[in-house]
Amino acid sequence: MDTTVALTGASGFIGGVIAQHFREAGWHVRGLARSPRQAQELEGLGIEPVQGNLENPTSLLTLVKDSVGVIHCAGAIRGVSREDFYQTNVMGVSHMIQACLAQPSLPRFVLLSSLAAREPSLSPYAWSKHEGELVLTREAGELQWSIFRPPAVYGPQDRALLPLFTMLHKGIGIQLGPSQAKFSLIHVDDLANAILHWLKNGGPPFQTFEIDDGFPGGYSWNDVFRLSNPHLRLCLRIPPIMLKIVGKSNEMFSRLFGYAPLFTSGKVAELLHPNWVCNSSHMAQTLGWTPQISLREGLRRLFTSDRLMPSHRE
Q1: Is residue 230 included in any domain, yes or no?
Q2: From CA 214, how far away is CA 280, in angstroms rounded?
Q3: Quick check: 313 pLDDT over 50?
Q4: Which of 42, 78, 137, 226 is a plausible cystine mate for 260, CB 3.0–4.6 Å?
Q5: Given pLDDT bands bounded at 50, 70 and 90, which one contains residue 311?
Q6: Residue numbers of the domain that contains 148
Q7: CATH number of the domain within which 56 lies
Q8: Does residue 308 have a pLDDT over 70?
Q9: Does pLDDT of 24 surpass 80?
Q10: What is the DSSP annotation of 57-99?
């Protein structure tokens, strides 16, 4: 059986790990590259590059040709307004669907969304991920699809959570949300394995899966601090008003200096939301897949030494 999988976002943190897992499982991976440099990097990793972007129908047709599975992982995470995210996170889904529907044999389709899609009113990013999911359900036709909604994803090459975990490893905890907040986490290897499991084993289509590391009830900030390093020397809680000032200031500077900001008022609203807990029981019951990497194990993989980790098992 042909095992070609087409992947967008192959040059990113999550997409790169997904590509690695599929290659190790014996699949041929074809990845979309936005530039010659990215194409060269993908080729060096054993990924067949297709140069183009989500607005180029010809490159998308080449990307998905003869594939048995398509994983749409590319997404915009920087911006202030809905318009900043619309082209990639909404129309990009539509363009990928049209490329798939043009194939004589329809591939199975995975949309990597975000748990933020559950709360579209919080931020332009959350709105765009929700709209991207709606586009898929409206336009997919006979395409067999599945949506994966991960919470915060961490692992090697992650630029968002790794600085916080690095500070924890050094004995300093930085709290960026309310003390009563609960949230889920997942290691990138578990996320990649779940997607591989769905495609490899012919998981049921037309499903939306929330996926996490299985920590019951989600983490509090204190849980993360305790599990990451029980010997913290310092705990710093950043007041919400300070987060809001930094987010708004970053938006103002981005307009002055012409860059796309990551930390914005919308991102602050996401951070201050009290409930980002996944309910992954549907995935376990439907796919028979369960996560394998706890937070402690995930951090052990991140750092060469586990001397800061508790010796007992939770």
Answers
A1: no
A2: 7
A3: no
A4: 78
A5: very low
A6: 4-153+187-212+277-293
A7: 3.40.50.720
A8: no
A9: yes
A10: HHHHHHHHTT-SEEEE-------SSHHHHHIIIIIHHHHHHHH
DSSP 162-225: HHHHHHHHTTEEEE-S-TT-EE-EEEHHHHHHHHHHHHHTT--SSEEEE-----TT-B-HHHHH
Please report whether residue 231 resides in a domain: no
Tokens of 96: 């990928």
Specify the amino acid at residue 86. Answer: Y
Assess contact for 246 and 185: CB atoms under 8 A.
no
Give the type of residue at 136: L
Q: What is the pLDDT of residues 98-132, one digit of tens each?
A: 999 999 999 999 999 999 999 999 999 999 999 99
Judge if pTM exceeds 0.90.
yes
Q: Does the residue 193 lie in any domain?
A: yes
Q: Is residue 279 pLDDT above 90, yes or no?
A: no
Question: Whose CA is closest to 242, among 175, 171, 312?
Answer: 175
Domains contained in the chain, number: 1
| Percent of the chain topping pLDDT 70 | 96
DSSP conformation letters of 233-282: SEEEEPPHHHHHHHHHHHHHHHHHHT---SS-HHHHHHHH-SEE---THH
